[in-house]
């Protein structure tokens, strides 16, 4: 089934791959392997010699999706090269929006979606925060791009470069694109998670999506955020949460 995405506020990015072969990875136990381009392995450290970073967390998210109805809507924020968005392969009736500000990662993600014949993911080259406009992304070396942050003071790497990238907030994105309900959100943005939640407050109150999000103290410090502020927001929105890895929490509406 071919999906048509009517994106008003941001453009979906389409690329033509020049790579002629692929590498197989097992993303989820007891599901068919997925394929990625060789250049994907050079971006961050998600894919390394057959091992997928955060695979138990990906498996957890997959299990949550399996329990839901077929026509779910998923936001993947900080999508990188697709270790979460590629789960769309196993949920062909779902609709995904993958947000990623780094152009090279977007190219790799789009190529990986094509390799796996996935047509239900819209890829958006943008950062996400609590406003729409332009923001500075601080970046380490390419093999550590998963640590790139919009935080003012990176603490986990020495900045190699900075890029001015577009930024959106989710409430305006949802309104502009007439998205009726968001069911799941995954956020991995190296400390900017609270900014993103604030920018999605209307949608969260309306839809009460299940949220899997990074919860790393050092990353939060990069963005001048505390765990107490996150707790306060989640309580205000009517959520409980549990730690599902050393760096991630699963937030469930009451």
Summarize the structure in words.
The structure is a single chain. This protein is of the alpha/beta class and 254 residues long. It has a single domain, classed as Vaccinia Virus protein VP39 (Rossmann fold, 3-Layer(aba) Sandwich). The chain has helices at residues 55-66, 103-115, 170-176, 193-198, 201-207, 217-222, 227-237; strands at 23-25, 34-36, 47-48, 51-52, 73-77, 95-99, 121-124, 127-128, 133-139, 161-168, 184-187, 210-214, 239-245, 248-253. A 7-stranded mixed β-sheet has the order 7-6-5-11-12-14-13. The protein is globular and about 45 Å long. The chain starts with 22 loop residues before the first strand and ends with a strand. Mean pLDDT is 92; it is low at 1-9.
Give the topology.
Elements lengths: L22 E3 L8 E3 L10 E2 L2 E2 L2 H12 L6 E5 L17 E5 L3 H13 L5 E4 L2 E2 L4 E7 L21 E8 L1 H7 L7 E4 L5 H6 L2 H7 L2 E5 L2 H6 L4 H11 L1 E7 L2 E6 L1
Parallel strand pairs: 5-6, 5-11, 6-7, 8-10, 11-12
Antiparallel strand pairs: 1-2, 3-4, 9-10, 12-14, 13-14
